[in-house]
Amino acid sequence: MEENFLMEEILVFGHKNPDTDSICSSITMANLREKQGSKATPCRLGEINKETKFVLDKVGIKTPKLLKTVSAQIIDLNYVEKSTVSTEDSIKEALDLMTKENFSSLPVIDKDGYFKTMLSISDIANTYLEIDYSDLFSKYSTTYENLKEALDGEIISGVYPKGEITSNLKEVSELESMKKGDIIITTSLTDGIDKSIQAGAKVVIVCCKKEDFISPRVTSECAIMLVRHSLVKSISLISQSISVGGILNTEKVLFNFNKEDFLNEIRGIMKDANQTNFSVLENDGKVYGTIRTKHLIDFHRKKVIMVDHNEFSQSVEGIQDAQILEVVDHHKFANFQTNEATKIRTEPVGGTSTIVYGLYKEAKIEPDEKTALLMLSAILSDTLLFKSPTCTLRDVEVAKELGKLAKIKDIEKYGMEMLVTGTSMSKENMKEIINQDKKVFPVGDIEIAVAQINTVQIQELADRKEEIKKEVEHEIGKYGYSLFIFVVTDIINSNSLLFVYGKEIDLVQNAFKKDVVDNEVLLENVVSRKKQIIPFLMTAAQNM
Ligand SMILES: [Mn+2]
User: Fold this and answer.
1) What is the edge-to-edge ordering of all strands in the sheet holding 9-13?
2) Percentage of the chain exceeding pLDDT 90
3) Which positions ≥6 away from 259 have C-beta within 8 Å?
4) Which of 308, 304, 309, 307 is nearest to 321 (CA)?
5) Inter-CA distances, 34 with 7, 20, 131, 361, 451, Å
6) How remote is the CA of residue 416 from the centroid of ligand 1, in Å?
7) SS3 letters for 495-539?
8) How far is the CA of 353 from the centre of ligand 1 (A)?
9) How far is the CA of 64 from the centre of ligand 1 (A)?
10) Which of 87, 109, 166, 481 is least surrounded by CB atoms within 10 angstroms?
């Protein structure tokens, strides 16, 4: 169990617009790999159809989760930099970090860890250029702690204050303009320290060597900070003590990302942006890290098993980013390419589930009742109850074995019930039925509309002839078609019943050499609109 928890998840899915074979093969394939010790999750790439819903309800399992993409996300990157600066840090600390780690910018966080903006080297440079030490602390904020740290000062006596500096910095020669509580900077060589204390200074910064320091003659609370640097150097260091929070440029337009953003969506933004380092945020607004373009090529790929398809165009978005561990399919291979060796299992049989069953057998794992019913349903669906030309003897054999395991006595009866439920249109309105798959063909200067629907029970629609007539006449009135043919195709018996309306009904009689009776004509062994209906209408139209 423990091991299972740490193991990486494998996503198993069929094609877009999933059919019963795609869904059932995903579930049964994921089950098999789980039984063999992997962590595999069945997924779907779209809404399930009525037939699949019937099967899942019958088996009593829930619909697999919807998978929208397997594109790599920022969290999949193998390298994300974690450096940040805080608004309370001094710009010296920020500059040191940026120089050491070679960053041109870094994310700034507030004291609670939330992202504020990015600080760039140019923000610091611009601040240095503008600095005038006399109003330093009123213009930029900093703390007594940062001041002491920047100067590497030592408190000799007095009480050194804490927190935000609100007073001014004065040189000892400016004592007449100082206010009580200001910070004075001086050397030890004059009587500057005494004068500063008497004038009410809060802190006196003394720039001299320790051995040259002369203790003040007056005693007070005033803090004396000894600094080893020269006066000029000290003033320059003081300017570095100002807090990052005080120099942030909030008007700059900068990009930042969420850690769940997809790499294929941020690549273009990163390429075009006037920025080299990008902040990545957690969902709560804290900083996850920063990324640079060069890191985008090294990411962890999601692991997948493709079933019942192999073409990327029919697969999940971002499939090119994924690591394809396996393909189990019964379709032709046309455009299939991977970045690494892939386990491919393909057989020319009627359903992917027939192959999956073979994999169970090879693994010496007997499918349980539910698994068997899922596989059986998929085979019956893909082979149209063994009547499809793609059906093989192997599909029939496997279905029989599965029928026993699933405790289904009459598999054809069960299959028929499934197909009937899947194609049932009793609850749909005629407008939707007719417009589900309607194509319009111009012939000379007239227009012919041919709508088609697949079913296993023609009678269900034949019983609704009045509704068909009404809806088709409405279509003709609205669009001006000269002929409207509604083709109801029985997918089991390969027949089509045509409902024909419009002023060119003769065209149908000429095309198929059969009489249209009461706006109806039955065409035996006709299922394809493209191959068996349209060409004949075109020929008949040319001969008129
Ligand atoms: Mn299939």
Assistant:
1) 65-66, 39-44, 9-13, 303-307, 323-329, 343-346
2) 64
3) 73, 74, 75, 280, 281, 282, 283, 288, 289
4) 304
5) 11, 21, 66, 15, 45
6) 18
7) EEEEEEECCCHHHHHHHHCCCCECCEEEEECCCCHHHHHHHHHHH
8) 8
9) 17
10) 166
Ligand 1 centre and the CA of 373: distance in Å?
16
pLDDT band at residue 418 using 50, 70 and 90 as cut-offs: very high
CA of 330 to the centre of ligand 1 (A): 7
- The rounded distance, in Å, linking the Cα atoms of 479 and 495 is 29
DSSP 351: -
Ligand 1 centre distance from Cα of residue 407 (Å):
23
Q: How far is the CA of 397 from the centre of ligand 1 (A)?
A: 17
Cα(340) to centroid(ligand 1), Å: 25
Q: What is the band of 190 on the pLDDT scale with cuts at 50, 70, 90?
A: low
Q: How far is the CA of 23 from the centre of ligand 1 (A)?
A: 9
pLDDT of residue 249: 79
Provide the pLDDT for residue 6. 63
Query: Among residues of the chain, what percentage have pLDDT more than 70?
Result: 99
Residue 521 to residue 487: CA distance in whole angstroms: 10
Residue 496 CA to ligand 1 centre (angstroms): 24
> Residue 348 C-alpha to ligand 1 middle, in angstroms?
11
Distance of CA 336 from the midpoint of ligand 1 (Å):
17
| Pair of tokens at residue 499 | 């409902």
Mean pLDDT of the chain: 91
Q: What is the pLDDT of residues 62-96, one digit of tens each?
A: 999 999 999 999 999 999 999 999 998 988 889 99
Question: What distance in angstroms lies between residue 378's CA and the mean position of ligand 1's atoms?
Answer: 8
Look at residues 106, 144, 420 and name the one whose alpha carbon lies nearest to residue 287: 106
Q: How far is the CA of 205 from the centre of ligand 1 (A)?
A: 83
Q: Is the pLDDT of residue 495 over 90?
A: yes
> Which distant-in-sequence residues (6+ apart) come within 8 Å of 57 by Cβ?
none
Q: What is d(CA 501, CA 306) in angstroms, rounded to the nearest whole number?
A: 45
Report the separation in Å between the CA atom of 308 and the middle of ligand 1, taken as the mean of its atom positions.
Answer: 5
- Amino acid 525: pLDDT: 92
The pLDDT confidence band at residue 337, using thresholds 50, 70 and 90, is: confident
Backbone φ and ψ for 231, nearest 5 degrees, come out as: -60, -45
